[in-house]
TrEMBL record:
Keywords: Membrane, Transmembrane, Transmembrane helix
A GO cellular-component term linked to this record: cilium
Lineage per the UniProt record: Eukaryota, Metazoa, Ecdysozoa, Arthropoda, Hexapoda
Protein name per Swiss-Prot or TrEMBL: Thioredoxin domain-containing protein
Residues in the signal sequence: none
Keyword DNA repair attributed: no
Length: 232
């Protein structure tokens, strides 16, 4: 598991139900309308506007035993080996439940959500009902079959494909990355340049800098004087 960005400040707004509450009943989900033969896929979130739309509730129902919009979200990052390993399994899961919404959010790109939803490590899979976090996937093995068990245990969603679930080579082709990718952090480079420039400026104003410059000038004058004597 990979750590989240350093600006994480703890579980502030997350409202996850614990497993004891989850056993009292499944979350009731609305079946997403799709055309016959449509293959389920994972939506990669590109903006906060898309995320807000994704988590917008359907109607005014707020209780878990009332039917509502269910969304499963994978919090990941391209530079995390664990996220890359989970990716194909999560893509395969979306194909098993085409009537359910599956999305993926880059936890480094949208780091503010880590605090809001209590994300402390990557990858993390969470179930949302009416825009609220309901349950976190806690199994140590993030495989497509364990993901299926998670959906069946905590929602009323069912699929005839659950008994024929497996990861194919096509699932490695996206939309989630199947290879670790390291992005260049240009802001970090700019920050280091700024720090170096500031440190250099303050050093030039220090007493030590003045002493060094004066010593260099003195040695230079002595060297010139010695050279003139040698020429005579």
């Amino acid at each position: 598991m990979c750590p989240v960005p350093e600006n994480y400040q703890g579980h502030q707004n997350v409202e996850l139900n614990d497993e004891h509450k989850a056993k009292n009943g499944h979350v009731k989900c609305i079946n997403k309308s799709i055309e016959s033969g449509t293959v389920g896929t994972v939506q990669i979130m590109q903006s906060m506007k898309e995320i807000a739309t994704l988590l917008s509730p359907h109607g005014n129902n707020t209780k878990r035993n009332q039917i509502g919009k269910c969304v499963v979200i994978l919090f990941y990052t391209r530079s995390c080996p664990g996220s890359v390993m989970v990716g194909p399994h999560y893509v395969a899961l979306a194909k098993i439940f085409p009537h359910m919404t599956f999305a993926a959010i880059d936890a480094f790109k949208f780091s503010s959500l880590n605090t809001e939803f209590g994300i402390i490590g990557l990858p993390t899979v969470m179930l949302f009902h009416q825009g609220r976090p309901v349950m976190r996937f806690n199994d140590t093995q993030s495989t497509v079959n364990n993901f299926i068990s998670f959906i069946l245990k905590y929602t009323d969603m069912r699929s005839p494909l659950v008994h024929n679930a497996y990861v194919t080579s096509e699932d490695f082709n996206g939309p989630l990355p199947s290879k670790v990718e390291y992005d260049t952090d240009y802001y970090l480079y700019l920050a280091w340049i700024f720090i170096i420039l500031c440190a250099t400026y303050h050093f030039t104003k220090s007493h030590l800098y003045s002493q060094i410059i004066e010593m260099i000038k003195r040695n230079w004058r002595e060297s010139e004087a010695q050279t003139e004597q040698d020429l005579r």
